[in-house]
Write a structure and sequence with these properties.
This protein is an alpha/beta fold. It is 22% helix and 14% strand. It has one domain.
Length: 81
């Protein structure tokens, strides 16, 4: 993974549907912090075109690590064996 020396900027833009994806525009990473249904079936092909770095940090273990890697995302989860 590339090193980023830029200052950290947080953008909290919750949304549903298209606004959810648009909130990821130019993001360095995506943090999934909820189990809400609208975040369980994201369009990862489109999402990958919006973010600067395809990195998903899944704090709720919603997604399967192998499926995320197959979609081209670096994937991190918390508390998984």
């Amino acid at each position: 993974m590339a090193r980023c020396d830029a200052p950290l900027q947080l953008s909290i833009q919750p949304g549903v549907g298209a606004p959810t994806l648009e909130a990821a525009q130019d993001a360095a990473a995506i943090a999934l912090v909820t189990e809400w249904d609208q975040f369980r079936a994201l369009d990862f092909a489109r999402l990958k075109t919006l973010v600067n770095e395809p990195l998903l940090v899944d704090l709720r273990n919603v997604y399967d690590p192998a499926e995320m890697r197959a979609a081209g995302f670096a994937y991190m989860s918390i508390g998984r064996a």
